[in-house]
Amino acid sequence: MDSRCLPIHLGDKSYDILFGRGLLKDLGSKVRPFCAGGRAFLLTDQNVDALYGATAENSLREMGMRVRRLALPAGEQTKRFDTLPEIYRAMSDFHLTRADLVLTLGGGVIGDLGGFAAATFLRGLPFVQVPTSLLAQVDSSVGGKVAVDMPWGKNLVGAFHQPKLVLIDPDVLQTLPPRVFRDGMGEVIKYGFLFDPTLLDLLQDPDRIEEVLFRSCDWKRRVVETDERDRGERMLLNFGHTVGHAIEASQNFSGFTHGEAVGLGMLAITRLAQARGLTEPGTAEAIAARLAQIGLPVRAGALDWEKVRAALQNDKKNLGDHLTVVLVRRSGEGYLYSTNREFFEGVEQCLA
């Protein structure tokens, strides 16, 4: 089968992103070189497991690997610190060693959770990302940031742990519910307004999805190669995430999806910046139009804004009373801006 390869150059942590229709059926042969010990621990969620779990496991077994498959409940509520003991116990019972392999088959929740478990069990196991949601394929599976949520904030406990391989099969997107597919488009819109306005013109054409995947990952590759540890340019990828994460936390991760919240976050912070002369007039309106075009929300509705403001205090980009926010001067030109918490005064009016 035809596949396309995008290498990420990170010295001894370099790896490839493979793109290709039907690649999931060839999973075993692609990952076998990374599994010297012969045991493969396959983490997934119950929804994905019903669709693709057996296919993935059979492919691994056909290459002579012993497989332990663990399917967790689907949803952001699973990406909690208190889920980890169940995973660690299953890994221990399977006698995983650092010569074996962890695979994450699912969306961003499973990729983040399984990646963090791999980063911490036995002080680090090799792992492979097999993202099955659009959001995970264009963003969260690439770059090595893995984390779990705490009740008061998103991604507060995490690590940098690069995968050995990312395997992206566009065919699996065909089984996504419409809302989950739109969720991933929020991150694609982010890339468009940060770096590449021409990417936005592909969003309505389903025949261009493979180009959307490749170009989105290529933008992330460029940033990660420059700033793997999120100390400078990589912070640009958090456009919309400061307010977006706060919205998610205020709803106990059970309201807006991640992509929906990020879209609202991009819109809110751009309206705030535009009002302060930090963004070219009309940019916020362009973001709102793209979100609405895809079917993502442009109004927040009834939120507990006290909880949102409290969650903003826990943003990982905060340094004392100062914080770095990600803004766009205009479509395609993102930048970092140092400010203070007063910047967010009036944020609720931006999403009314």
Task: Give a concise summary.
This is 3-dehydroquinate synthase. This protein has 352 residues and is α/β, with parallel strands linked by helices.
Mind explaining what this structure looks like?
By secondary structure, the chain is α/β, with parallel strands linked by helices. The protein has helices at residues 27-31, 46-62, 84-93, 108-120, 134-140, 178-194, 209-226, 241-250, 258-275, 283-294, 305-312, 347-350; strands at 4-8, 15-19, 39-45, 66-72, 101-106, 127-131, 145-150, 153-160, 165-168, 318-319, 322-330, 333-340. It folds into 2 domains: 4-175, Rossmann fold (3-Layer(aba) Sandwich), CATH 3.40.50.1970; 178-220 and 228-350, Dehydroquinate synthase-like, alpha domain, CATH 1.20.1090.10. The protein is built from 12 helices and 12 strands. The strands form 3 sheets. A 7-stranded mixed β-sheet has the order 1-2-9-6-5-3-4, sandwiched between helices. Strands 10-11-12 form a 3-stranded antiparallel β-sheet, with helices on one face. A two-stranded antiparallel ribbon has the order 7-8. α5 (134-140) packs parallel to α6 and α6 (178-194) runs antiparallel to α10 (283-294). The chain is globular. The N and C termini lie far apart (49 Å).
